[in-house]
C-alpha cells in the first residue's frame, strides 16, 4: 500500500481492505470510472474510508501496546550477575558488585590467615585482598568444563565491609533482571538446601543456577580477612 495510508498493519488487516487504488486506481491500470472525476485516489471517499479504518486499527494496536507496557511495569525484578566456577553456575545480587575486571596476577602472602585468602592483586595501582569463592562455598572444581566458545576468566570486585575484595571466576555470563516471583519460588524451594550461603536454586537458560545469599557471603568474606 502506498501514499498516506501506508501504515504498518497485519496481513489480515491488509487483506480485509480492498486496495482498489493499487488495482484500478492511480497506482494500478487507471481503469476506475471514478478516477476521471477525482483526478487522484486520495480525493475518493473509498480511499479515505480505507485510510480511516487503518488509522483506527493502528490506534487500537498502539493502545494495546501501551496497556501491555503499563502491565509490565508491575513486574518487579532483581539484577543478578551470572558467573561460573568450575562446572557450577552462580548468581549474586549486583548491589554488592563494584565491577567486573580482567584477571590480574595474584601475589600470595606469607602466613595467610585463612585457606580462602589467596593473596593480593593489583587493581589500578591499589593492592586488594583476593579470596577464593571455591573455598568459601566448598565447591568441587576438579572436573573440567569443555566449551566450544572462548572463555575468559575474570575477577569480580565486590564491596565487603572493610573495603573491596576481588574473587577470581572462570567465566562471567552477564547481568540479568530476574522476575522476583521466580526468585521467591527458588527461595522457597531451596529453604532445605544444605549448600553454603545459598538462597535458592533456579532454572536459567537450561541450567541450574545457585542464587547466592550476598549478606551471608559478605559476612564470610569479612571473617576470612580478620
TrEMBL record:
It holds the Pfam family CheW. SUPFAM superfamilies: CheW-like (SSF50341). Residues 77-223 form the CheW-like domain. The keyword Cytoplasm applies. Gene3D superfamilies: CheA-289, Domain 4 (2.40.50.180), SH3 Domains (2.30.30.40). The keyword Iron does not apply. It is found in: Cytoplasm. One of its GO terms (cellular component) is cytosol. GO terms for biological process: chemotaxis; signal transduction. Keywords: Cytoplasm. InterPro entries: CheW (IPR039315), CheW-like_dom_sf (IPR036061), CheW-lke_dom (IPR002545). PROSITE patterns: CHEW. This is Chemotaxis protein CheW. It comes from Pseudomonas chlororaphis.
Amino acid at each position: 500500500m502506498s501514499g498516506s495510508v501506508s501504515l504498518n498493519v497485519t496481513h489480515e488487516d491488509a487483506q480485509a481492505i480492498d486496495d482498489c487504488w493499487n488495482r484500478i486506481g492511480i497506482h494500478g491500470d487507471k481503469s476506475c470510472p471514478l478516477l476521471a472525476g477525482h483526478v487522484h485516489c486520495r480525493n475518493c471517499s473509498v480511499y479515505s474510508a480505507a485510510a480511516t479504518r487503518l488509522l483506527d486499527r493502528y490506534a487500537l494496536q498502539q493502545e494495546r501496546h501501551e496497556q501491555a507496557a503499563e502491565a509490565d511495569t508491575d513486574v518487579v525484578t532483581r539484577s543478578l550477575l551470572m558467573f561460573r566456577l568450575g562446572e557450577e553456575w552462580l548468581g549474586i545480587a549486583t548491589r554488592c558488585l563494584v565491577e567486573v575486571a580482567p584477571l590480574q596476577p595474584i601475589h600470595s602472602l606469607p602466613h595467610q590467615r585463612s585457606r580462602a585468602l589467596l593473596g593480593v592483586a593489583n587493581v589500578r595501582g591499589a593492592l586488594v585482598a583476593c579470596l577464593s569463592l571455591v573455598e568459601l562455598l566448598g565447591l568441587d572444581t576438579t572436573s573440567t568444563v569443555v566449551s566450544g566458545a572462548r572463555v575468559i576468566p575474570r575477577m569480580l570486585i565486590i564491596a565487603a565491609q572493610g573495603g573491596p575484595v576481588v574473587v577470581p571466576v572462570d567465566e562471567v555470563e552477564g547481568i540479568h533482571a530476574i522476575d522476583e516471583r521466580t526468585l521467591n519460588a527458588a527461595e522457597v524451594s531451596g529453604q532445605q538446601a544444605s549448600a553454603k550461603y545459598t538462597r535458592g536454586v533456579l532454572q536459567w537458560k537450561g541450567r541450574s543456577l545457585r542464587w547466592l545469599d550476598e549478606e551471608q557471603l559478605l559476612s564470610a568474606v569479612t571473617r576470612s580477612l580478620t
